[in-house]
Amino acid sequence: MTGKSGSVDVAILMGSKSDLETMRPAAKALQGLGLTVAVRVLSAHRTPEEAAAFVRESTANGVKVFICGAGGAAHLAGAVAAHTTRPVIGVPIAAGTLGGFDSLLSTVMMPPGMPVATVAVGGAENAGLLAAQIIAGSDPALAKRVEAERAGRRRKVLQSDEEVRAEFEKSSDSKSSDSKSGGG
């Protein structure tokens, strides 16, 4: 998805189409905050020239943040970081026998000068929110939307707290009245 003028705020890349369901929450979070995204399948190993060209072109066209999801060797985020000075966020994908631990280590262990922010294994939603927060540093309207999104999450937790407390207060009240009446 791109904006009205064709500009894209965040580029989301994944090494394989099988990573799409893991990466989809990043796009949803960004779009929910009014940001435009481009979503691509480009591999650091199988399509290195195309990946590099996309990153250079996207950087020239104003992409503000890149989010990269990859499993196994998980070199995509580092490969993207090699071709841009824009922030890159890595999302390790759970694949293989190590459940994503190998991807996490590959994503987080960048050499000096090639920083990649890294979220939890499968943490694409947080990657999207982090990208929005990065962009919000220079966009006051987006900053307000990010704050409102965070406030909405707070309200949901407080509502859940109220419901749980009410359930257990009711349970405690009935036990207390049973013991006072000698029942039990």
Question: What secondary-structure arrangement, pairings included, does this model have?
Answer:
Elements: E1 10-14, H1 20-32, E2 37-41, H2 48-60, E3 65-70, H3 76-81, E4 88-92, H4 101-108, E5 117-118, H5 124-136, H6 140-180
Parallel strand pairs: 1-2, 1-3, 3-4, 4-5
Explain this structure.
With 184 residues, the protein is of the alpha/beta class. The chain folds into 2 domains: 10-138, Rossmann fold; 142-184. It has 6 helices and 5 strands, in the order E-H-E-H-E-H-E-H-E-H-H. The protein has helices at 20-32, 48-60, 76-81, 101-108, 124-136, 140-180, and strands at residues 10-14, 37-41, 65-70, 88-92, 117-118. Strands 2-1-3-4-5 form a 5-stranded parallel sheet. Helix 3 links the parallel strand 3 (65-70) and strand 4. Helix 1 runs parallel beside helix 5 and helix 5 packs across helix 6 (140-180). The longest helix has 41 residues, at 140-180. The termini are far apart. The mean pLDDT is 92.
Keywords:
5-stranded parallel sheet; elongated; Rossmann fold; 6 helices; alpha/beta; 5 strands; single chain; 184 residues; 2 domains
Helical amount: 40-55%
Q: Given this structure, which CATH class of the largest domain is correct?
A: Alpha Beta
Beta-strand percent range? 5-15%
Are there runs of 5+ residues with pLDDT below 50, and where?
Answer: none
* CATH fold assignment of the largest domain: Rossmann fold
Q: Taking Cα atoms only, what radius of gyration do you get, to the nearest Å?
A: 22 Å
Major sheet description: 5 strands, parallel
Strand order of the largest sheet: 2-1-3-4-5
Q: What separation lies between the terminal Cα atoms?
A: 63 Å
Q: Which H/E pattern describes the elements? A: EHEHEHEHEHH
Structural class, by secondary structure, is alpha/beta
Count of discrete alpha- or pi-helical segments spanning 4 or more residues: 6
